[in-house]
Design goal:
With 255 residues, this protein is an alpha/beta fold. Helices cover 30% and strands 23% of the residues. Strands 4-1-5-6-13-12-11-8-9 form a 9-stranded mixed β-sheet, sandwiched between helices. Helix 1 packs across helix 7 and helix 3 packs across helix 4. It is globular, with a radius of gyration of 17 Å.
Length: 255
């Protein structure tokens, strides 16, 4: 059998006079190096997306981080800060992609914006500015810092005892993670369970309730220099294993 095909939704970006569908290399590399699967970038053009074609080949979904925020209208709020970037073309693809993948129990892993997308797609809400919420820390990075500092260790998260993430990491109870986000989980969607929280109580990781298929969403960035981080490699390896199981079941069901 070929390696499982993992759908990686793109962002949109305008550079000079041209427009691009983009997926950052670190996420694509995380699929191949961490999950040992084959990444396939999905353009952010919802009106021309053939969903039957997508799900005919998809063995998993990786939802990436991005500079843009999830549009607040998707969780029934007005835009708090119009200066912050949005990517409505990406939203138009990822929201239906998540809902259909969840219904089909296709394995999903989500990072930063991707985690926020899953929560919103399934009925949850976001803090548009975590740092402006009473009692919350500032989870943002400083764009003026070198990348190694921006993606360096930022704060602790406590793992849910006997949770999925804790089990993946050999029973660990806490991690130190990086932190590069302004938005964050406010109300967790029905059917999801908390896997990790920051010291201020912000949900930092979640999964789907038992029986709903593999889903792992993290607010931090495990894809950063992934081969140098044993914990990140374990998380991506678990995702890859779930994708291989899904691929095998799909083949058996079609036989």
């Amino acid at each position: 059998m070929h390696k499982p095909l993992i759908i990686v939704p793109s962002c949109t970006k305008h550079i000079d006079t041209d427009s691009y569908y983009l997926a950052q290399m670190k996420y694509v590399d995380a699929v191949s190096l961490g999950a040992d699967c084959m990444p396939l970038v999905l353009p952010a053009c919802a009106a021309r997306t053939d969903w039957d074609a997508v799900f005919a080949v998809a063995d998993g979904i990786l939802l990436t981080g991005a500079p843009s925020n999830v549009h607040p209208a998707l969780f029934d709020e007005q835009i708090l800060d119009p200066i912050l970037p949005l990517d409505e073309a990406r939203d138009a693809v990822t929201i239906p992609l998540i809902r259909q993948a969840f219904a089909r129990r296709i394995p999903m892993m989500a990072i930063c914006r991707g985690a926020q997308e899953i929560n919103v797609a399934l009925g949850g809400s976001l803090h548009q500015a975590v740092h402006e919420v009473a009692g919350m820390m500032d989870h943002r990075d400083d764009d003026n810092d070198p990348l190694d500092v921006q993606y360096g260790p930022a704060h602790r998260v406590s793992l849910t005892p006997d949770g999925t993430v804790s089990a993946m990491l050999g029973g660990r109870t806490e991690l130190t993670v990086n932190s590069l986000h302004g938005q964050g989980i406010a109300r967790l969607a029905p059917g999801l369970r908390i896997e990790a929280v920051a010291d201020d109580g912000l949900v930092e990781a979640f999964s789907a309730e038992e029986g709903a298929g593999f889903m792992l969403a993290v607010q931090w960035h495990p894809e950063w220099k992934i081969t140098a981080n044993a914990d990140s490699m374990k998380l991506l390896a678990a995702f890859g294993a779930a994708c291989r199981q899904y691929q095998l079941k799909k083949k058996e069901d079609s036989a």
